[in-house]
Amino acid sequence: MTEITIERRYETYTIRSKGHADTPEVCAAISALMQALQGWAHNPGIRLAVERVEPGDCELTFFGQNAGKKRACESICDLMCVGFLRLHATAPDQIKVTIKQ
Question: pTM to 2 decimals?
């Protein structure tokens, strides 16, 4: 099982994935979401405070450096929540999602 934790602290966002899903399809979906976030976070005006991407253990902590980028960070965090929750709905025995605010 993969455990996803999404944490919002003021205007800083952390998304962690830990563990492995039982099927290659779910594992690939989790990896695709995390890699998309990692790529997006390298945009100008986004600051990555933590960037750890290892097999079965990923953590990305990011925040925006101006008002527009802060709103973008909030929106991308919302989108990641939706993506992981939809994945959980299709494979609840393979992915657990915890959202902390």
Answer: 0.93
Mean pLDDT of 72-99: 96
Under 8 Å between Cβ of 38 and 60: yes
CATH code assigned at 96: 3.30.70.1490
What are residue 31's phi and psi, to 5 degrees? -60, -40
Task: Give pLDDT tens digits for 45-68.
Answer: 999 999 999 989 999 999 999 999
Edge-first strand order for the sheet with 2-9 is 46-54, 57-64, 12-19, 2-9, 95-100
Can you give the residue range of the structural domain that contains 7?
2-100
Q: How many domains does the chain have?
A: 1
| Residue 19, Ramachandran bin (φ over 0: left; ψ between -120 and 50: alpha; else beta) | left
pLDDT at residue number 29: 95
Contact 52, 13 (CB under 8 A): no
